[in-house]
Amino acid sequence: MVVYLANLDGQGLVFTYGLFGVQHDELTAEKKKVISTLYSLLSQSADRVDHLQDESHGVPREGPKCTTFVGYWLKSGDYEKWKETDEVKQFWDGLPEDAGVWREVMTVPKSRYMFAANQHETSGLATMLGLKASTDEAYWGVYRHRLSANPDEYTDPDDTFTSPLATSSKAKPDPSKKVVDLSKSSLSDKIRLGRVTISKIPDNLCYCREGQRQPNLPPEELETWKQKLAPHAVSWMNHLDTERNKNGVVSFTFNIAHLNPKPTLDPGTDLEVDTDAIAETNQLMYLLDLAHFELAGRSFKDHVKLRQTTFEMYGPGGAHSQNGKLSIWVELCILKSGDMDAEYVGCREGTGLMVLENV
């Protein structure tokens, strides 16, 4: 089965990968202004900006509760210059203590970044990097193999990317590791006024963005997705979200991504209702390390079944191996202690990496 990886050829590649969010119980005029201003500022500098909203995941809602922008800078230096501009500083420093605005900005060398897709379609950082074909699929540990294929001076080739933390669900935790309770990371309705800043994170935190795109699927393929793939996919995602200590999940969110945001963003658009804007579902997650992600994937039966069925349907000889249109992609970052700059201004308890504030 052919997959398409980001082309990481070249020396000294260090990217900036930024998540910027605005929480809103209702889209007031002030919230809309903040969203529009943030999008405008990001668009002035980032090589790419994706527009996401929280997905209700089948539960009726009156509107989105969070707007998230994913900003990509091919050169980290460009982000550093941008964040020091007066306009950006004034925006961030001027936020009130109940703003509901946050950022999680990662600095990532190519040796700790991976992108893969089943279709020759670029997303995320690969939009700037381009793609190359590969056949390294269908086995556990493939993410590690892909990471090791792009060495640079920023990462020890013998690094196992192991977290110094263990979760409270471990029956026999390693005495050398600090124990954390990740159940507290679930999002709360309680607002934490003021600023929470996180500049140091535990080594080897694993960030992942997954995307599923269904562009005009033929009836037969759409039925395959609904009957044979979607139930396992939803079960897998819910497992990661709800069993956080078991899987080492620090943060997990369901999102809808707008594939082609317009130059001027309409903050009031509900991507679940505006069907022309719905391009793909996304999941954004942080885990303690890659090993937790790998173990969760191998041990959860619905994820094993999801992989198996996907390969049967889209792999060699499968019903949709030649003309299948379902698009699935993933990008992943392994983060070291100093790779993260996060701040939460008047956000809900449990937002993002807030659980790591005192770790």
TrEMBL record:
<keyword id="KW-0479">Metal-binding</keyword>
<dbReference type="InterPro" id="IPR025702">
    <property type="entry name" value="OXD"/>
</dbReference>
<dbReference type="Pfam" id="PF13816">
    <property type="entry name" value="Dehydratase_hem"/>
</dbReference>
<dbReference type="GO" id="GO:0046872">
    <property type="term" value="F:metal ion binding"/>
</dbReference>
<protein>
    <recommendedName>
        <fullName>Phenylacetaldoxime dehydratase</fullName>
    </recommendedName>
</protein>
<keyword id="KW-0349">Heme</keyword>
<keyword id="KW-0408">Iron</keyword>
<dbReference type="GO" id="GO:0016829">
    <property type="term" value="F:lyase activity"/>
</dbReference>
<feature type="compositionally biased region" description="Polar residues">
    <location>
        <begin position="160"/>
        <end position="170"/>
    </location>
</feature>
<feature type="region of interest" description="Disordered">
    <location>
        <begin position="151"/>
        <end position="177"/>
    </location>
</feature>
<keyword id="KW-0456">Lyase</keyword>
